[in-house]
Amino acid sequence: MPLLQLKFLEMDKRSSTTAGYIYTLQAFLTWGILPIYWKLLNSVPAFEILAHRIFWSFILLFLWLLWTKQKRIWDLLKQKKTRNSLLLSSLLIGSNWGLYIYAVNSNQIIEASLGYYITPLINIMLGIIILKEKLDKLKLSALIVACLSVLYLTLDYGQFPWISIYLAVSFSLYGLIKKTAGIEAMPALSIETLILTPVAAAFIGYKMVLGSGALFVNSSFVDILFILSGVATTLPLYWFAKGAQRIPLSSVGFMQYIAPSIMLILGIVMYGETFKQEQAIAFGLIWIALVMYTISMIRNTRKNKIKGKG
Q: How many structural domains comprise the chain?
């Protein structure tokens, strides 16, 4: 292959990787501030919020399918392996959404943030075990420090943090499926919401028939929040799916700390949840791990640039 063509391929690869980091960063920043959104709906039961989140996400994605005249979605549904993967991913993300909303609106944002601090560790481990990704010594040291800090934080609770653990496991497995399935982001999201929508729509209809539903009843503000929940849900998931396909799963794992850090601050500053000194120490250790990982990434980037020039 000509040298010039190799150079262009290397540039395309770097550009794709950069875009992957940007997509992933956007997703985690959005997820970090989402508790503010769900808190505005804290007068509505968590399962009803979840149903609207799924339903309006599907409406948004359905309009996108019509606008772009996508036909690939039907081809994906015909493939048994792909269909099974998307069925599993839809169940994982649906249950993750529901438990997350419950945690936020029951004043357990800090425990939810713990779950998303644990998530990167599981991501990294899945990347090493299943995808055979490798970590250098500094990254491995960062992982050990992060593991110790999360273990310390978990033990400090004095009880099994089931909310944290389920949020972590479900989202890690969801990320792994996104990484390995190789399906385009929007068609995959469309099928996932399509799978969940019949149950969500039936529940919304049932609540409306009973007269106990929150849609079109008291507040137009609540109605608008329900409708826009499709955007709040779909956009960061789209960014995450696009990013996860372009960068190593271990990198996705460490960037995941952005969202729970923002959530932690919101839980303490905005919503007055209790934050112990022991928890502050554990979170400080996690940030040390992040600094170590960042230094390793910068070193590797410089080495790759030098190799590229050579």
A: 1
Domain, as residue range, for 153 = 17-309
Alpha-carbon separation of residue 256 from 98, 249, 250, 262 (angstroms): 19, 10, 10, 11
CA 56 to mean position of chain CA atoms: 19
For 159, which DSSP code? S
> How many CB atoms neighbour CB 238 within 10 A?
19
In a domain, 94, yes or no: yes
- pLDDT the model gives residue 13: 60
Interatomic CA distance for residues 289 and 296, integer angstroms:
11
For residue 126, what are the contacts with CB-CB under 8 A and spacing of at least 6?
A: 172, 173, 175, 176, 249
198: nearest Cα among 55, 57, 95: 55
Joined together, the tokens standing for residue 91 give 């169940």
Q: Report yes or no on whether pTM surpasses 0.90.
A: no
Nearest to 93, CA basis, from 237, 231, 198: 237
Q: Is 47 among the domain residues?
A: yes
Residues 6 or more apart in contact with residue 109 via CB below 8 angstroms:
35, 103, 263, 264, 266, 267, 271, 273
CA angle 259, 265, 270 (to 5 degrees): 120
73 in a domain, yes or no?
yes
Instruction: Report the length, in residues, of the chain.
Output: 310
Is the residue at 243 inside a domain?
yes
By C-alpha distance, which of 255, 260, 256, 306 is closest to 279? 260
Question: What are the backbone angles phi and psi of residue 100, rounded to the nearest 5°?
Answer: -65, -45
Non-local (6+) Cβ contacts of 236 within 8 A are 26, 27, 28, 30, 31, 34
Distance (Å, whole) CA 293 – CA 296 = 5
d(CA 115, CA 31): 13
What tens digit of pLDDT does each residue of 167-206 get? 988 988 988 887 777 777 777 888 889 899 999 999 999 9
- Tell me how far apart the alpha carbons of residues 60 and 63 are, in angstroms, rounded to a whole number: 5
